[in-house]
Amino acid sequence: xxxxxxxxxxxxxxxxxxxxxxxxxxxxGMPALTYFGIVAALDHDWLLALLALLTATVxxxxxxxxxxxxxxxxxxxxxxxxxxxxxxxxxxxxxxxxARGLWFLSLPLVSLKLLPPREGGIxxxxxxxxxxxxxxxxxxxxxxxxxxxxxxARYITTTVLxxxxxxxxxLILERYQQRIEGQNAALLAERDQxxxxxxxRTGLExxxxxxxxxxxxTGLLNRRAFMTTLADELTRNQRLHSRFTLLMLDIDxxxxxNDTYGHPVGDAVLVHLSGLLAKQLRSIDKLARIxxxxxxILLIDTSADAAATVIERLLATIRSNPASHPENGKPxxxxxxxxxxxxxxxxxxxxxxxxADRALYAAKQGGRDQHCWR
Length: 374
Prior knowledge:
This protein is α+β, with helices and mostly antiparallel strands. It is built from 12 helices and 7 strands. The chain has helices at residues 4-7, 13-42, 46-69, 73-92, 107-114, 117-137, 149-213, 223-240, 254-261, 263-280, 304-320, 351-365, and strands at residues 245-251, 286-289, 294-299, 323-324, 331-332, 336-342, 371-373. Strand 2 and strand 3 form a beta hairpin. The longest helix is centred in the middle third of the chain and has 65 residues, at 149-213. The radius of gyration is 45 Å and the shape is rod-shaped. 28% of the residues are buried.
């Protein structure tokens, strides 16, 4: 059973970047929030202490949810909202020298780094308007210090400049990332296309190789593939000083079968005989159809004495297992003649084939349904 990590989809580059920025936000923001909470508690400013604690809690929860469950920007938006509320509170109650209000200048960085550029820009614009209103109304409430018009102008100008620079850089980065993602998608599509073409070409090569080496009717080796196998076995035998036996098998009076029942029935007889022969041979032996009704059998590492039993079993099996008519199921009795030869040390590729063919001719001339050696 695969674990969750192996079954989960891959993380996008955008998600990785957002997680890194959220982690940096936690590393930088948590000490500041801790400071505000402690100072506010010492000054008995319980609202600020509560807001700092709430903001820290929401940030931690959002970042943990982002790392554990993903969900992208949706997971981090509550943290941006809480942080915005905190800095706006600091603008409204900034102290005699308005030192607290300067923390509002960090909001463009937080919003534009943790939200999509356009959404972050709109969010900061709304926060700037809200902050402007708070500064214009400051001094009317308790513990609130009024702002001068010059201070407000410099403050807003600075915030707008910071927002503009950050927004421009984020838009350029977003456009660059989109171009890279498009190029990566095109490369992946091209790779997939190449893989499909390779699989298709491999399949075609396998099919061509099968067609080039296999008899289409019986599924056995064809003459060309069998001759290659015979040549390889000759080389191996001469190197190891071993022997093999080659059999040439021909169905007796097969022309009569075709003339009597038709060629489709003759094909069914050939398929039937192929199955009989394959069941009687070992997995290492080689069986091929090399002509119309002619088959070749290569008994690997088998001398003439050991092959005699196999040959008699083949003849008896063919004799006792007639083929069935494909339409009416009536039995069609068949026999076969076999020409046999044992390999010799000085054989070339054609020598055993010629001897086996002569032996087959002798078996037919001698009465058929028998075997003969050469």
